[in-house]
């Protein structure tokens, strides 16, 4: 039999296609919200950083009730640095809702997650969103989705996906692609999910099998394992067995469980096959491990966890001005924070190499940058090194990680991309002209070669290029150093004056990045600066700045939209043995002019 009272789905969307608005609207229109006074926070990706970078980082659970059916909705991170996490989230669901903008159509960022979903055999429902906008092209967009499904190897059942046309903004939906047919509710979406996405198997009379797919942590209950009950039942008070990754067994009594309701977690006494739950009370519970009936030790196969390929050194700030800006500055603060992160992030490793120094390893530049950026915003002040790839011996040969890079770009930028990646020791694997003057390029690149490449790529393609990468494999080390130091970097030296600025880079287009808190070595600031206003700089001491093209000695340069540098931008200018200061106010590289 099936559990018709429940559906487990994951939601996949390209950033800005309306995932958050849609989930908010589902919450509002389901009975879930009757119990809650009002929706005071947006359902998903509330984290600013996620928004800025166009990805979702944290998997979040939401649950809604529609006509007596509980729908558990899981968010999927859209970036390949989080590949293992995507697989684990998909292992908990039976279907996915793919949200596609009715004008923009399918975008490369969704390919990665969609491919994983199709491989894992989940059933898709497609929502063509923003149907209220003028000049949408819903029929073409559906064709594009179909082509993509075929290309990604969808099976016969997956290809027969139902399509719902919706305006998440207006809270309307319909099975018809004519905007005039929109109905004033999200019922067409709810109905498609309930009709097409399989209900979980009801084998709750059989012995318990629960598997941890995600970890969470809080100070009161400690480590929390989130996952799905795949078989049987679990009740508070039950004696059950945890089967660890190394195969050892631990018996324990279930003391506390939570289910999901709206955006909240609610304590529950019992769960059965098909339910998603958060289980606390076992402090060393880990991703992939199973909780089973003590009389039937029958664990589920382990889940995939990505190994780290990149590391950075974190250490306390030793600059003469240390401690001015941060709330958390000591080695103990750093250690505690990193240990806390380890509780929930299974692809992270931390090794203390000196009393004030930690080597932190992760899945890629983005993975580590997000941790650093979060810490900065929480009030930490510390230093980080340029990232280094983790080399490994395979059959006696020194190997380094290679990434598979997929680029979609207007054809006019193809030449410079190929050249730039050439200097980074990339090998081209594929090139397809996809029409409309667009080309898709695929490269295999040593992960070393991608460090600091994102900024260069964005500026090279004027923001029109899209770059995705996934770990490919460890291959023998490529000889020599990789990458190109950018010319024209105008970098500051720190002084004790608090109100001055430093210029990091003057690009061809005249954009200058600035950060508050340091002194300009090469120029002088004329006029006031606020986050919104342009900043005028008089380059008076420019004799060393031979590479600066847009402003030379005795000229005035205008700094457009000054803002804090991102870590990735700083990394481009860092050398192997240099450290960058991370404070709540800025990310700051102390360096002489080139
Ligand atoms: P997410 O990044 O996928 O979570 O996208 P959001 O839900 O944040 O939506 C991105 C932008 O698109 C916001 O400005 C929304 O107001 C807007 N938006 C979302 N759904 C619709 C829609 O159905 N119609 C229109 N016109 N705009 C929408």
UniProtKB/TrEMBL annotation:
It holds the Pfam family GTP_EFTU_D2. Its main location: cytoplasm. It comes from the Bacteria. Residues 4-201 form the Tr-type G domain. GO terms for biological process: gene expression; response to cold; ribosomal large subunit assembly. Keywords: Cytoplasm, GTP-binding, Hydrolase, Nucleotide-binding, Ribosome biogenesis, RNA-binding, rRNA-binding, tRNA-binding. GO terms for cellular component: cytosol; ribonucleoprotein complex. It is found in: Cytoplasm. Its EC number is 3.6.5.-. GTP binds at residues 16-21, 129-132. Gene3D superfamilies: 3.30.70.240, bipa protein, Elongation Factor G (Translational Gtpase), domain 3, P-loop containing nucleotide triphosphate hydrolases, Translation factors. PANTHER family: TR-TYPE G DOMAIN-CONTAINING PROTEIN, TRANSLATION ELONGATION FACTOR-RELATED. A 50S ribosomal subunit assembly protein with GTPase activity, required for 50S subunit assembly at low temperatures, may also play a role in translation. Binds GTP and analogs. Binds the 70S ribosome between the 30S and 50S subunits, in a similar position as ribosome-bound EF-G; it contacts a number of ribosomal proteins, both rRNAs and the A-site tRNA. This is Large ribosomal subunit assembly factor BipA.
């Amino acid at each position: 039999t099936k559990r018709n009272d429940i559906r487990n789905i994951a939601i996949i969307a390209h950033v800005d296609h309306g995932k958050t608005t849609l989930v908010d609207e589902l919450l509002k229109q389901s009975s879930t919200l009757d119990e809650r006074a009002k929706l005071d926070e947006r359902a998903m990706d509330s984290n600013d950083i996620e928004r800025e970078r166009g990805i979702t980082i944290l998997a979040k659970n939401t649950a809604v009730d529609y006509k007596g059916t509980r729908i558990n909705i899981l968010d999927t991170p859209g970036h390949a640095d989080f590949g293992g996490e995507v697989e684990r989230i998909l292992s908990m669901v039976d279907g996915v809702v793919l949200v596609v903008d009715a004008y923009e159509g399918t975008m490369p960022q969704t390919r990665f997650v969609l491919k994983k979903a199709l491989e894992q055999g989940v059933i898709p429902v497609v929502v063509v969103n923003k149907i209220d906008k003028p000049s949408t092209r819903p029929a073409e967009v559906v064709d594009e989705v179909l082509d993509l499904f075929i290309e990604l190897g969808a099976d016969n059942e997956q290809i027969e996906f139902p399509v719902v046309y919706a305006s998440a903004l207006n809270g309307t939906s319909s099975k018809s692609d004519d905007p005039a047919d929109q109905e004033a509710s999200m019922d067409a979406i709810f109905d498609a999910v309930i009709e097409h996405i399989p209900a979980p198997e009801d084998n709750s009379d059989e012995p318990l099998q629960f598997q941890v797919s995600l970890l969470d942590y809080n100070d009161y209950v400690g480590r929390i394992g989130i996952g799905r009950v795949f078989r049987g039942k679990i009740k508070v008070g039950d004696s059950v067995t945890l089967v660890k990754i190394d195969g050892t067994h631990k018996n324990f009594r279930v003391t506390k469980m939570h289910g999901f309701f709206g955006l909240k977690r609610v304590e529950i006494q019992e769960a059965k096959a098909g339910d998603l739950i958060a289980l606390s009370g076992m402090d060393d519970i880990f991703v992939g491990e199973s909780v089973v009936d003590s009389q039937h030790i029958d664990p589920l196969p382990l889940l995939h966890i990505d190994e780290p390929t990149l590391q950075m050194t974190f250490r306390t700030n030793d600059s003469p001005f240390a401690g001015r800006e941060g709330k958390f500055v000591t080695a103990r603060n750093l250690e505690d924070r990193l240990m806390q992160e380890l509780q929930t992030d299974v692809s992270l490793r931390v090794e203390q190499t000196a009393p004030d120094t930690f080597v932190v390893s992760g899945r890629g530049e983005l993975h580590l940058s997000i941790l650093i950026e979060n810490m900065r915003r929480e009030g930490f002040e510390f230093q980080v090194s340029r990232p280094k790839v983790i080399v490994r011996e395979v059959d006696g040969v020194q190997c380094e990680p290679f990434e598979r890079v997929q680029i979609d770009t207007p054809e006019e930028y193809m030449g410079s991309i190929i050249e730039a990646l050439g200097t980074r020791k990339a090998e081209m694997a594929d090139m397809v002209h996809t029409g409309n003057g667009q080309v898709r390029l695929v490269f295999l690149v040593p992960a070393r070669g991608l460090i600091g490449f994102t900024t260069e790529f964005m500026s090279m393609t004027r923001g029109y290029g899209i770059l995705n990468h996934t770990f490919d494999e460890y291959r023998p080390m490529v000889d020599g150093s990789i990458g190109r130091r950018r010319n024209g970097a105008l970098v500051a030296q720190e002084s004790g004056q608090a109100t001055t600025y430093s210029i990091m880079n003057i690009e061809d287009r005249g954009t200058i990045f600035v950060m508050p808190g340091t002194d300009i070595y090469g120029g002088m600031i004329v006029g006031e600066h606020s986050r919104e206003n342009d900043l005028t700089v008089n380059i008076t001491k420019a004799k060393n700045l031979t590479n600066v093209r847009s402003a030379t000695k005795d000229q005035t340069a205008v700094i457009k939209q000054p803002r804090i540098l991102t870590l990735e931008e700083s990394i481009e200018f860092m050398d192997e043995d240099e450290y960058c200061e991370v404070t709540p106010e800025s990310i700051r590289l102390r360096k002489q002019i080139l």
